[in-house]
Amino acid sequence: MNIQTTSRIQLIDITASLNKEIAEAGIGTGMAMAYSPHTTTAIIINENEPGLKEDILKLLNLIVPQGRYAHDRIDNNARSHLQAVVLGNNVCMPIENGGLALGTWQSVFFVELDGPRNRKLAVRIVGTGQ
Ligand code: ZN
């Protein structure tokens, strides 16, 4: 899956795209794994509420404040890497009844931390048709 991001830091809800891939794969019960092959992105699961999305971006600035980092000597994006380290680059989710078995308030987000860029997301879906 390709994802074109539009901001430096951005949360992109990919839940519908993942459910579409599960439907196309014809999987009823199983497991879906979403994996980002980048070092300045992350994948998280949480609530898609505008205020909370704002708060998550604020949290990222708090946990990795502006400052001098050794990696900035190479390409000036150490904060993006460090924020990615904290969030993690993959999630694994159960599939039931032909779709992601997420909690009522859960959505899956691709997190851009050094955009805008054209990103790739690896999705693996395994299971049975029932
Ligand atoms: Zn870098």
Describe the structure.
The chain has helices spanning 15-25, 50-63, 72-75, 78-87; strands at 2-4, 10-13, 29-35, 41-46, 90-96, 99-100, 107-112, 118-120, 122-128. With 130 residues, it is an alpha+beta fold. The chain has a single domain, classed as YjbQ-like (Jelly Rolls), CATH 2.60.120.460. The strands form 3 sheets. Strands 6-5-3-9 form a 4-stranded antiparallel β-sheet, with helices on one face. A 3-stranded antiparallel β-sheet has the order 2-7-4. A hairpin with a 2-residue loop joins strand 5 (90-96) and strand 6. It is elongated, with a radius of gyration of 16 Å. The mean pLDDT is 97.
In brief, what are we looking at here?
The protein is α+β, with helices and mostly antiparallel strands and 130 residues long. The protein is 30% helix and 35% strand.
What key phrases describe this protein's structure?
130 residues; alpha+beta; Jelly Rolls; 4-stranded antiparallel β-sheet; 3-stranded antiparallel β-sheet
Helix and strand element order: EEHEEHHHEEEEE
What number of structural domains do the residues give? 1
Number of β-strand runs: 9
Give the helix level as a range of percent.
25-40%
Ligand types:
zinc ion
User: Considering the protein shown, what is the CATH homologous superfamily?
Assistant: YjbQ-like
Could you name the CATH class? Mainly Beta
Output the strand order for the largest sheet.
6-5-3-9
User: Roughly what fraction of the amino acids lie in strands?
Assistant: 25-35%
Q: Overall mean pLDDT score?
A: 97
Terminal CA distance = 25 Å
Please state the second-level CATH architecture: Sandwich
Give the number of helices: 4
Structural class: alpha+beta
Give the C-alpha Rg.
16 Å
Molecular shape: elongated
Question: In CATH terms, what is the fold-level topology?
Answer: Jelly Rolls
Give start-end ranges of low-pLDDT stretches: none
Major beta sheet summary:
4 strands, antiparallel
